[in-house]
Amino acid sequence: MDEQLIKKVLATVNVGEPYDDVAPEITAVRNWALDLCRQYNFEYNRTGKADIKMLKTLFAKTPANGITVLPNFHVEFGRNIYLGRNFFANYDCFFMDCAPIKFGDEIKIGPKCGFYTSNHVEDAVGRRAGYVESRPITVGNNVWFGASVTVVGGVTIGDNSIIGAGSVVVDDIPANVIAAGNPAKVIRPLRTDDRYRGMEGRTGDYHYGE
Q1: Where is the signal peptide (predicted)?
Q2: Is the CB of residue 130 less than 8 Å from the CB of residue 95?
Q3: Residue of 56, 85, 112, 120 marked catalytic
């Protein structure tokens, strides 16, 4: 894929204004990303091994190591996704990165989660013509998403928080809380447990696909 074309498409979709989602150059980059996801998922399912080089080609930013993305995952463009250290995404996740999706360090994402930055325009004529608008998603460090969580564009989630399974996150979530529901609301602050003091430097690594 032509890197200049990717940059041109990102400059269009990241501006925060409605854009033609069926324009040929946007379709070309989307299909490139779709093909990479298809290859990655096929090989992972066939061999049980993750092709980390393919993920590094697809994503905008990746750590030197500590990436686990289980099949069958999909993206919109890929190059709007930024990963911190020790990123884990369980089976069947979708990242609709029509605007930047930025994850901090030590992220754990349960199966069947979706991160959706894009929305069709409200105007009926524009919607039928294929126009959409997108807003970014920002996730802090050490956040855990339970299974089947939906996060929409324009949301920021603070450090250390937990998002309960099946939640739909439409508003910002502060740091150090448990949030759940549709729409997701803060349930309570995180509790601490003295059994885990002294483990601050430890990172759990599941070693899938090695």
Answers
A1: none
A2: no
A3: 120
3-state secondary structure of 136: coil
Cβ 97 vs Cβ 77: under 8 Å? yes
Residue for token digits 């250390």? 160
pLDDT at 1: 83
Q: Report how far residue 106's alpha carbon sits from residue 144's, in angstroms, rounded to the nearest whole number.
A: 9
H-state helical runs in the chain:
3-13, 24-47, 52-58, 124-129
C-alpha separations of 109 from 14, 25, 90, 104, 119 in Å? 24, 31, 6, 12, 22
Q: Domains along the chain?
A: 3-187 (2.160.10.10)
Amino acid symbol at 98:
C
Reported confidence tier of residue 210, pLDDT bands at 50, 70, 90: low
Taking the model in full, what pTM does it have? Answer: 0.92
Distance of CA 200 to the CA centre of its chain: 25
β-strand pairing of 131-134 with 19-20: antiparallel
Residue range 184-208, pLDDT digits in tens:
999 999 998 667 776 666 676 666 6
Question: How many of the other CB atoms lie within 10 Å of CB of 154?
Answer: 16
Alpha-carbon gap, residue 78 to 175, rounded angstroms: 27
74 belongs to the catalytic site: no
